[in-house]
């Protein structure tokens, strides 16, 4: 029996170009912007053999989170209304919040862990992270597990 596969979360800019192009070709096919693998690979500038070699190994991060329970960790300033704005951001995105755990604030900051079911997300998880991080009083928002 072989070893189980190992997975890494890597920022797209750090990936070899071929992986990004394979992911883009898969996206074109899924959205119907390309009707065939040949058409999709031509559109992104890779060979069909490269597409078939990597297609099962390359998956956008958001695909892996869809329909799952994901744990988010958010560092907030200890100010009135900040947690409320974070929860509102999650609700507006379609995430179903299952759990909220907030630690006692220290040095003006509180660490909040949010468990959310993501099948109803109306935006990519990366966008939810970005929108939440941009909220006033949010210092950091990241995914711990999914």
From TrEMBL:
PROSITE patterns: ACT
Domain ACT stretches: 71-146
Lineage, broadest ranks: Bacteria, Bacillati, Bacillota, Clostridia, Eubacteriales
Classification via InterPro entries: ACT-like_dom_sf, ACT_dom, UPF0735_ACT_dom-cont
Name the UniProt record assigns to this protein: ACT domain-containing protein
Organism: Candidatus Intestinimonas pullistercoris
